[in-house]
Sequence to fold (289 residues):
Amino acid sequence: MSIEVEQLHPLYAARIHGVDIRKSVSDSTIADVQDAMAKYAVCAIGHDAPPTNEQHIAFSRSLGPMERSTRKIAGTEARVPYPEIVDQSNLDEVGEIYADDDRRLAYKRANRLWHTDMSFYDVRATYSLLAAHAIPPAGADTEFVDMRAVYDFLPEQRKAQIEGLVVEHSYWHSRVLGGGPEPTEEERATRPPARHAMAHVHALSQRKSLYLASHACGIVGWPSDKGRALIEELLAFATQPRFVYAHKWRLGDVLIWDNLATMHRATEFDDRTFRRDMRRTTCRERALA
Ligand code: OGA
Ligand code: MN
Fold:
């Protein structure tokens, strides 16, 4: 192996040394990174300065088919004008900290709920790659849970109970939970819910994993109260401190996580005073037509 791996949590998560995503990375190193990801599910790669948007996209492309946004918010110019990059900062299109009444801020807050990226799509997200371009002096860790470890620790009767269950995931469910406005019917229609197995075999590690998120709004065929209650109980079990790894960002970090094996959430910081500039690319299970 050309890379070195330093484990960050007793159950998973690692820092990879010996890779610089700003340069062209050999196929064998990509294979090493993929092996580390299969094992650790969350891997940080440090740099003395963040990658450019182009470097970030080029490296991500070597890990799988990429998500490209087709959506434009009317009347706004993107601060990071690349369809492959999701702007996860607290900055508006001219790079100023959002005004208090900016609607986009309410939607960003939904990231503070435990989730896995894009579970509300049929074609799920595999890897997310988040690059730290500016970090506040305190707070704003990103927290993770390895859902394979969680599955391993579930009582046997719970494992039996959830076998075969299918969960409905809705983008709007988590937006409203996060304090966003109730969507209109028209908005709802733009992002219909998706259905996924509650427990699945994580293909890259062949380990059983839970697949849940704050987007999970019910269990197919169950009364909604009962479905939500089980989802909430499992989320509470999964987010016990013993499963949580809190990533303390270093400027220039590129953090990769596997959405099919983990959940994550953003945490608080003084977002009225300090700039936090984070940019994400996302790979998906397969390319969309
Ligand atoms: C994300 C996300 C958390 C954070 O980029 O998908 O949830 O701490 N980010 O910014
Ligand atoms: Mn996310």
